[in-house]
Design a protein that fits this description.
Length: about 350
Amino acid sequence: MSILGVNIRELIPPEAIKEIELESLKGRTIAIDAYNALYQFLAAIRQPDGTPLIDNKGRVTSHLSGIFYRTINLIEAGIKPIYVFDGLPPSLKEKELEKRRKVKEEAAKKYQVAIAEEKYEEARKYAQISTRLNDEMVKEAIKLLDAMGLPTVQAPAEGEAQAAYMAKKGDVWSSGSQDYDSILFGSPRVVRNLTVSGKRKLPKKDVYIDIKPEVIESNVIYEKLGINREKLIIIGIMLGTDYNPDGIKGVGIKTALKIVKSYEKTEEILKSLPQTQVDYYEIFNYFMNPEVTDNYTIQWKEPSVEKIKEILVEEHDFNEARVENAIERLQKSFKENVKSQTKGLDFWFK
DNA sequence: CCTGGCAA
DNA sequence: TTGCCAGGG
């Protein structure tokens, strides 16, 4: 989860956020931050005591369950998801990643304690915090998506940056993530809460609320706030990003907005920031020009029943009848929503 | 997170 | 038909 999200959400004018129905995204291609999605499945798909789904060899399978059923739901709704996977994180992110490692290690300890004390709600909470995505999980997810016939994209660095690049180019309609980073990376829009069943548990209480998909339009943010992307990036830097987790002391959204609006040139704003160990100019440049690639193809294939069953049923002990049922839904919606649009010159469709 | 069985 | 919720792996 990005710290950027926490603060910048308050800044986004309500006019820039549109609550929608999933069906209104019919025909849209969306570049989804795969890490963001997998991480959420891994954190959420757990028993009340925090135990994730596992196969008979003890390997975690929560992420596979999540991405399998979610993706089929999206395709059924006529949405064409393209999962974008992270490459190597930029060195700028090291401090934040170290911070996250520590938080997760602490949570893992607290999880053990909570389990020993039979405090299961607490255990679940710490299990979620300590969630980690490893290379094996990523590999398996890519293998599954490939078997399902979906294109995947390997980003050279940040998935959010790559997704933003693809949206900016027009290869996809939008980026998809729970975070707002792709906006700073230049995406024209980001879709959040990309899901069918709209119930979500609130952090503390046993209360469930309806969550609807929402589209955030970048240009509306800029119009309403009277700023441009450069200035939004600098606001992000002042509030704290993955590349400078601490932000700038004493600066909140109101002050940040006031500061950027009081200058004409971005250069001047950057110069006005307090001199610290952090190279704000470097961070700014990274958001403006992150490492991205054109080395990807957006092309769908017929879903492979055998491969899907091999991965889920044979390898990971998913229930065969359930998987078969889901595959049928996939094949049917693939024909209706994907294949029908790939004829002739539109083979490389968007 | 998501599905599917069951009660109302 | 809808809503709930236990259980998925």
